[in-house]
Amino acid sequence: MLVSALTAQDAPRYRALMLHAYEAAADAFTSTAEERATEPESWWVRRIADPSGLSVAFGAFEGGELIGAVTVEFTAKPKTKHKAHLVGMFVCESARGLGAGKALVSAALDAARTRAGVRVVTLTVTEGNAPATRLYESCGFKTFGVEPMAIVTPSGMKSKIHMWLPI
Ligand SMILES: CC(C)(COP(=O)(O)OP(=O)(O)OC[C@H]1O[C@@H](n2cnc3c(N)ncnc32)[C@H](O)[C@@H]1OP(=O)(O)O)[C@@H](O)C(=O)NCCC(=O)NCCS
Fold first, then answer.
1. Which residue ranges have their beta carbon within 6 Å of ligand 1?
2. Cα separation of 8 and 45, whole Å?
3. Are 118 and 141 in contact (CB under 8 A)?
4. How far, in Å, from the CA of 21 to the mean position of ligand 1?
5. What pLDDT is stored for residue 138 in this prediction?
6. Closest ligand 1 atom number to CA of residue 125
7. Which CATH architecture has domain 2-117?
8. Residue identifier of the C-alpha nearest atom 31 of ligand 1
9. Counting atoms of ligand 1 from 1, which one is nearest the CA of 24?
10. pLDDT at 142
């Protein structure tokens, strides 16, 4: 398994992976496949390799296939540019439990650490998502709050656990 930064050329397969993710793990994400399916290719390119550098993504590859991904978002706003936000974490069902998730978080954290001025990484997890919560805890993230009734999912209204990691 290889983890590397995604480029604009990866946008079509990243789009296919994430449209599957929004359907297959609907409770885990705040976007639906229907919403995202309408986004133009330029949106997907900005999501994984924003020309301004404010959004970068990493992919996990197995036998040349994209089997997982994560995105790190930065901001140029002077008062909040010390914070990075991790979104869109997904590993294909058939590749789980083999370390891809941890390798992706590690690559995302390396990107945050090497970006000048970034001091904190944040993320949110839907309540009850034990695999993701354990993964983030194993990478050092700690919970700092819970947003009640944060999202409407196919299985009802769910809270979001907010986590952070100082770097
Ligand atoms: C969460 C997810 C990304 C984990 O990916 P993965 O490749 O299976 O994770 P890894 O194999 O790297 O496991 C890393 C750690 O995560 C935790 N973990 C992973 N799967 C787990 C499970 N089923 N139950 C409990 N803990 C689990 C463990 O702490 C594990 O470390 P360990 O193997 O040393 O115990 C994957 O299950 C997934 O894509 N889920 C659906 C989408 C999702 O929930 N995304 C997160 C949105 S916030």
1. 25, 28, 89-91, 96-102, 125, 129-132, 134-135, 138
2. 5
3. no
4. 14
5. 98
6. 48
7. 3-Layer(aba) Sandwich (3.40)
8. 135
9. 41
10. 98
Q: Which two tokens stand for residue 123?
A: 């993320």
Maximal C-alpha separation, the chain: 42
Length of the chain: 167
> Could you identify the residue written with the tokens 């790190």?
72
- Between CA 29 and CA 41 the distance in angstroms is 20
HEC sequence for the chain: CEEEECCHHHHHHHHHHHHHHHHHCHHHCCCCHHHHHCCCHHHHHHHHHCCCCCEEEEEEEECCEEEEEEEEECCCCCCCCCEEEEEEEEECHHHCCCCHHHHHHHHHHHHHHHCCCCCEEEEEEECCCHHHHHHHHHCCCEEEEEEEEEEEECCEEEEEEEEEEEC
**Which residues of the chain fall short of a pLDDT of 70?**
none
State if pTM tops 0.90.
yes
Residues 6+ apart with CB under 8 A from 60: 1, 2, 3, 66, 67, 68, 69, 91, 95, 100, 103, 104
Q: Which residues are within 8 A (CB) of 25 and not within 5 positions of it... i.e. 6 or more apart?
A: 90
**Nearest Cα residue to atom 8 of ligand 1:** 96
